[in-house]
């Protein structure tokens, strides 16, 4: 288990130009990605920034999103049809992620396995692309 006491995690909202500041030259995450509870979700250089429909992040009627920053609006809440996600094709590349059973639409939600905050992202089992997507604005980024 890694020592997180020296980790300073920064919420997405604090990056003025996230597509420049959060990406390396290969368009992958330049920083380790953490849950708000400080659990490591994904190591640097493993996720690729993609734009995908965000409507699949919406929970079924009657379910409530457990947000780490309830006072901060998420880009998932605005009217734009797409948003940024970190995409991976292998669930085993994550350090600490939980996966729900699929709902009727075939979507599986991803959450922090330590504190159950989520959904942090999703996997659409009906998609031809086997992508595990973490919303860029629902996680924090390391600055050691």
Automatic annotation (TrEMBL):
Keywords tagged on the record: Guanine-nucleotide releasing factor, Protein transport, Transport
Gene Ontology cellular component terms for the protein in this record: cytosol; membrane
List the GO biological process terms: post-Golgi vesicle-mediated transport; protein transport; small GTPase-mediated signal transduction
Recorded hits in PROSITE patterns, A to Z, give: MSS4
InterPro entries (UniProt xref): Mss4 (IPR007515), Mss4-like_sf (IPR011057), Mss4/transl-control_tumour (IPR011323)
Q: Does the keyword Protein transport apply?
A: yes
Q: Which residues, by range, are in coiled-coil regions? A: none
Record flagged with keyword Lipid biosynthesis: no
Chain spans, region Disordered = 60-82
Q: Domain of life, per the record?
A: Eukaryota
Q: Which GO terms describe its molecular function?
A: guanyl-nucleotide exchange factor activity; zinc ion binding
Indicate what this protein is called per its UniProt record. Mss4-like protein
Q: Which organism is it from?
A: Glomus cerebriforme
